[in-house]
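Let us work through a complete example step by step.
Step 1: write down the sequence.
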Amino acid sequence: MTALDLSSPVAVVGAGIMGQGIAQVALVAGHPVRLYDAAPGRAREAAAAIGARLDRLVEKERLTGADRDAARARLSPVGDLAELAGCALVVEAVVERLDVKQALFRALEDVVPADCLLATNTSSLSVTAVAGALEQPGRLVGLHFFNPAPLMPLVEVVSGAVTDVASATRAYETARAWGKTPVACADTPGFLVNRLARPFYSEAFALFEDQAADPATIDAVLRESGGFRMGAFELTDLIGQDVNESVTHSVWRSFFRDARFTPSLAQRRLVESGRLGRKTGRGWYEYGEGAERPEPHTADPASPPAYVVAEGGLGPAGELLPLIRAAGIEVREEPEDEGTRLTLPGGGELVLADGQTSVEFQDVVYFDLALDYRRATRIALSASQDTSPRTLAEATGLFQALGKKVSVIGDAPGMIVARTVARIVDLAHEALAKGVATEGDIDTAMRLGVSYPLGPLEWGRRLGRHWAYSLLEDLHEREPGGRCAPSLAHYRHAHASGKRDGGAS
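Step 2: predict the structure and record it as tokens.
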């Protein structure tokens, strides 16, 4: 099954921002496009907006004037669904209500030919449920574009329970012909990206609710240590708190209120107060004229220790040892199979985040996971009331000697980056085991859909087969209730022998 021929007309129903973006993608690819919206005059206004965006592409030399003119000539705003007769593909981008989408597709079945491919751009509704009202449900597929559609490369191609293989394949190949990177996934709540991304937001909000750190500090650590493009608070302000919370609630309800997807009370209060983010001028941060972004907590300068004693290779933080030596600090190594700690001159210990808390030990400072300790510009430390001032100062001075800013947060098990990554890795293993998508498509979706620095399964391999699972086991013991409980799929992965893949992964 091949992509739609470029001579085949494509219809887009819904002339909002997303509909306009999808129409532009199909236009630039070379299709005739018919744009429809139920609101009188909106399709014509949307066509003019698309034309203006094509003009800007010409100004930026991303499109020739001739191609712009040809694309404009292929775009037809229409005022009646009947004018979509003869289209080979119809993509809907209307309001996220099941009854509205079902009614639209039932009406379309009376208009378009029997071989017309029907596609929903829903981000949170069940593709199976949308198709359930149709006489030919097998021809409906999910084509989930990401906003802005002309710029974002990823398209989730979602097969409902009765979607024909031929329909899914044609949709997949068409998206690829349009210059997109399609990933195939089953019809599961949140599909791939919105399902696997929930912990990125929920862990940040949980840390805030527990008063472990403020939003600016959590965001800075996620960016500067975790390698994420944006922190959770600034990203949800950009998305819109109401939009982000709505998706979270949809996934939570669809998974029968699974504790792992529990919405945030703090975010609920933000939405109730009308602080929806950038679009209202206030969210987690202020955006009005003259508003200043709060600075993350950064520790004052401290003297580095003269030496550290390393037990084992520090696991996922092993690259710290050559950095410490390069900073002129002596490293005394003591062999241990799986050591993840440094002993400081004062007798206190510096330990990689593992899901336990500093208060469980006499004199311990935890340090957070980093995507790349060489390139990280900030490291979070966690201490309790039982941590001595000398140990905290020595730990702070050590990382400052490596050129890192240090943020000291509360006694939070799993810290910031470590618990976030572990939970994303866990959900990815579960999605893989349940056949939601292939390993390659899971990693591709998260890198392209939400700009993660690594795909979650790739990240899990770098950390080692047991690391993320063990952290979640520890975290679940300290925060029972199921939100942080590792999945059965992750358990099986962590405890597999690894003989077939050559060892730990």
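Step 3: interpret the result. The chain has 19 helices and 15 strands.
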